[in-house]
Design a protein that fits this description.
heterodimer, A: about 230 residues, alpha/beta, Pyruvate-ferredoxin Oxidoreductase, domain 3, 6 strands, globular, B: about 350 residues, Rossmann fold, 2 domains, 12 helices, 14 strands, about 20% strand
């Protein structure tokens, strides 16, 4: 069967979750693959857990959302609870290990930003499928748990604003389905004007991406499975 | 004026954006709209595109007005359309009924959200009853249920052509997922693919004295005598039936040796196809059937499927709205087993269809 990768990214509104999903899918499309990105959108303007679903494949993609993810990225405590239902024994579960409280939010997002209130899947899942409950603890059933100190690194070494670029870099490294060059190209097309106005912003974003790759690299190596 | 698309190109965008581009490509001249999630971006993108291509936009005070001003634009000779969802689709039934009775072409894009009432702004397949048989009348409309951005683009163009060719209102039935998700599609100029766009003409206010220089336009939605209405209704029904045989569309796969057929429409059919493929890979003989036109419904196509395999699993994000159309199409046709996965207002994945079928043993 053709390679299909399903990624669920969740975090607090303003963490840039939707931008990560959007850029990831855009890069997949840019490489000639089938890519599908959908946000979980509700009626709120801010607050709540924001969730992005991304699928990249060699073939036509089925339903826009999915029940089990190959990779789950959870960026806050609530996001961990919210994404447990997408975790199976084959899931790589990535979380922000530096996270105690939800991070300070810089509300600078690219494109659509949307939030979610209650998880409809929990109730709906009772039809023809066992419901799973969320309790805020890390999943016990995941294939691998990987903690990335993205918030801390963003604050101490780079800038809180590029937190989501660190996560994007880490995701790209973990998923291994799109080239970093294409990610940079997608970023360039989204933020081109801002980059031209302020070249330091480009540098900052690209080094955040690289930092993300390094952090994921190190985490994978620690487990001896790079 | 700029040419819309310089050459065929693959783009990556939301479904709402794809619809706006398709409406421009189809030669639509004005959109009359009222905002509602999840279709808002159709309006937003249209208002961005409209000035570049010398097209117009009118924001009305509600959906009733959006519908009636659309009819007004059409009477004046313009290719007009609108877009709505949920409670907006409810209000649209009145102008749609008028279009049916007066044989006014119009295009309405519906991005289904949860129902009844305000419900969710997100997603459902709960507007099937309403788009097929809403309003006081006989359901004289064309309804295309799309499943991808490519289809949103293709069928929006087709909806304009069919509406203006046959003079019935045409509806593109999408949903919040299709509206908001981003995926790739190929955009093209229909003329360059040999699609001849039907040109609109004014229904009223033509030059010359009616009855002397030209036949009078006689567009009626009111009758004083029962028999008059009867004649009108029978004549419209005859034309609708005649059209039906020419425009009905369905998709089916792996029916020949199937022991179970999954039935779905719209975005859920993607999950159905994916589930079929996974089950086939495991050696299970599963097929798939999808009506593309929900009105008129592909009854003969479905009956032919039932003649080959009469075990069905019907899957929809509603509580039996597609099932109602399905059962009517198979009236008096023997069906051995009929099972359902109904998830009102919630998406359905390939995984759960696979799980369900595997559990059947």
């Amino acid at each position: 069967m053709a390679k299909l990768i399903k990624i669920a990214i969740a975090g607090e509104g303003g963490q840039g979750v939707q931008s990560i999903g959007d850029i990831l899918a855009e890069a997949g499309n840019e490489e000639g693959k089938e890519a599908l990105y959908i946000p979980n959108f509700g009626i709120e303007q801010r607050g709540g857990v924001s969730l992005a679903f991304v699928q990249i494949s060699e073939e036509q993609i089925g339903s826009p959302k999915f029940q089990s993810a190959d990779i789950v990225i959870a960026l806050s405590e609530r996001a961990v609870a919210r994404t447990l239902q997408y975790v199976t024994k084959d899931t790589l579960f990535v979380y922000d290990s530096s996270l105690i409280a939800p991070p300070e939010v810089v509300d600078e997002v690219i494109g659509l930003q949307a939030y979610d209130t209650v998880a409809p899947e929990a109730q709906a899942g009772k039809i023809g499928r066992k419901a799973k409950s969320g309790h805020g603890e890390l999943p016990e059933n995941a294939k691998r748990l990987i903690g990335i100190p993205a918030t801390a690194v963003a604050q101490q070494e780079l800038h809180p604003r590029v937190f989501n670029m660190i996560i994007l870099g880490a995701t790209v490294r973990a998923a291994g389905i799109v080239e970093m060059k294409t990610i940079e190209k997608a970023l360039e097309s989204k933020l081109g004007k801002k980059f031209t106005d302020n070249p330091k912003l480009r540098e900052l974003n690209f080094s955040a991406l690289q930092k993300g790759v390094q952090l994921m690299d190190a985490a994978l190596r620690e487990e001896g499975q790079a | 004026m700029d040419k819309l698309i310089q050459e065929e190109k693959r783009v990556f965008m939301t479904g709402n954006e794809a619809v706006a581009w398709a409406a421009v490509a189809a030669g639509a001249e004005i959109m009359n709209g009222y905002p509602i999630t999840p279709q808002n971006e159709i309006m937003h993108y249209w208002t961005r595109l409209a000035p570049k291509f010398n097209k117009k936009f009118l924001q009305t005070e509600d959906e009733l007005s959006a519908g009636f001003t659309t009819i007004g634009s059409v009477l004046g000779g313009k290719k007009a359309f609108s877009a709505t969802a949920g409670p907006g689709t409810t209000l649209f039934q009145e102008p749609l009924s008028m279009a049916e009775m007066m044989r006014i072409p119009m295009v309405l894009v519906v991005q289904q959200r949860g129902g009844p009432s305000t419900a969710t702004v997100i997603y459902s397949q709960q507007e099937v009853n309403m788009v097929t048989f809403g309003g006081n009348g006989e359901g004289w409309r064309i309804v295309y249920s799309t499943s991808s951005h490519q289809e949103l683009y293709d069928y929006t163009i087709k909806a304009f052509d069919m509406a203006w060719k046959y003079r019935f209102p045409a509806i593109i039935l999408g949903d919040g997922y299709q509206a908001k998700m981003r995926e790739s599609l190929l955009m093209y100029n229909p003329e360059e693919r040999g699609i001849e766009l039907v040109q609109p003409e004014a229904f009223v206010g033509k030059p010359g004295l009616p009855g002397r220089d030209r036949p009078a336009s006689h567009l009626r939605n009111a009758f004083s005598v029962e028999e008059e209405l009867f004649d009108a209704a029978m004549s419209i029904q005859r034309e609708y039936d005649q059209m039906a045989s020419e425009i009905i569309e369905a998709d089916q796969q792996q029916i020949e040796d199937a022991q179970l057929v999954i039935v779905a429409h719209g975005v859920v059919s993607r999950a159905a196809v994916a589930a079929m493929n996974r089950l086939r890979a495991k050696g299970l003989k599963v097929g798939y059937f999808r009506p593309i036109t929900l009105r008129p419904f592909p009854e003969k196509q479905l009956q032919a499927v039932a003649a080959s395999c009469n075990n069905f699993l019907l899957v929809e994000s509603a509580l039996g709205q597609l099932a109602r159309l399905f059962k009517e199409a198979l009236f008096n046709v023997p069906v051995k087993t009929f099972q359902t996965i109904y998830k009102p207002g919630v998406g359905i994945t390939a995984e759960e269809i696979v799980e369900y079928i595997e559990a059947l043993g």
